[in-house]
Amino acid sequence: KAGVTQTPRYLIKTRGQQVTLSCSPISGHRSVSWYQQTPGQGLQFLFEYFSETQRNKGNFPGRFSGRQFSNSRSEMNVSTLELGDSALYLCASSAQGSLLSGELFFGEGSRLTVL
Amino acid sequence: DQQVKQNSPSLSVQEGRISILNCDYTNSMFDYFLWYKKYPAEGPTFLISISSIKDKNEDGRFTVFLNKSAKHLSLHIVPSQPGDSAVYFCAASSQGAQKLVFGQGTRLTINP
């Protein structure tokens, strides 16, 4: 069974640009979450989608957005990039959409560097 | 506002000894706790979890203890092995929240 796939794995952008990251969950998983990992901050929750609906959103500015498609694949977009957006962006999927019934399965992440 | 805190950024343990990783939380609504392990260039992988109705959960060499009154949980690894060298994150959730709140992580190094 293929794991969570994230593309691209690495990318470099400059301030003011925008970026789109993609995530394909494990087959059959309908919940997709996004997290940002920066040194010293751990993983910060961005948002969670289930059946194409955003169910939960973290405390990030409106420049961070996402969506989920009917095949459960998800994308997140960051507009007007800032230096502080440099981070590892992790996508995770779960089967039932309830953390109490199963853990999250993470992809390897997309490492974004903003120059 | 860091609701989940791992106050030790790093920990070094000799192979074969016990590794104890600690985590504190402030939100009394949290009722489900998890530990994840992360190797470089890989995503975090689930290790073990515990519900707030329990105070201990064991899985092989890994045991998680939960002290609700102190809002503290710990992960014990016995015996520690070189392959356990990784960054460990604790995470917490409250029912229906559909999201995990992570600590900053602790880098565990097992020395031969």
Major sheet of chain B: 6 strands, mixed
Q: Any idea what the shape of chain A is?
A: globular
User: What distance lies between the first and last C-alpha atoms of chain A, to the nearest angstrom?
Assistant: 37 Å
- Percent of residues in helices of chain A comes to under 10%
Number of strands of chain B: 11
Average residue-wise pLDDT of chain A: 91
**Which structural class best describes the helix and strand composition of chain B?**
mainly beta
Q: Shape of chain B, please?
A: globular
What proportion strand of chain A? over 45%
Supply the number of helical segments of chain A. Answer: 0
- The helical percent of chain B reads under 10%
- How are helices and strands ordered from N to C of chain B? EEEEEEEEEEE
Radius of gyration of chain A equals 13 Å
Rg of chain B, Cα atoms, Å: 13 Å
Q: Pick out the low-confidence regions of chain A.
A: none
By DSSP, the count of extended strands of chain A is 11
Helical segment count of chain B: 0
Structural class of chain A: mainly beta
Distance between the termini of chain B: 38 Å
Described by its quaternary structure, the protein is: heterodimer
Polypeptide structure, described:
- The complex is a heterodimer of chains A (115) and B (112).
- Chain A has no helices and 11 strands.
- In chain A, the strands form 2 sheets. In chain A, strands 2, 4, 5, 6, 9, 10 and 11 form a 7-stranded mixed beta sheet that branches. A 4-stranded antiparallel beta sheet of chain A has the order 1-3-8-7, with no helix packed on it.
- Chain A is an all-beta fold.
- The termini of chain A are far apart.
- Chain A is globular, with a radius of gyration of 13 Å.
- Chain B has 112 residues and is mainly β.
- Helix content of chain B is 0%, strand content 54%.
- Chain B is built from no helices and 11 strands.
- Chain B has strands at residues 4-5, 10-14, 19-25, 32-38, 45-51, 56-59, 62-67, 72-77, 86-93, 101-102, 106-111.
- In chain B, the strands form 2 sheets. In chain B, strands 2, 4, 5, 9, 10 and 11 form a 6-stranded mixed beta sheet that branches.
- Chain B is globular and about 40 Å long.
- Chain B starts with a strand and ends with a strand.
- Chains A and B meet through β4, β5 and β10 of A and β4, β5, β9 and β10 of B.
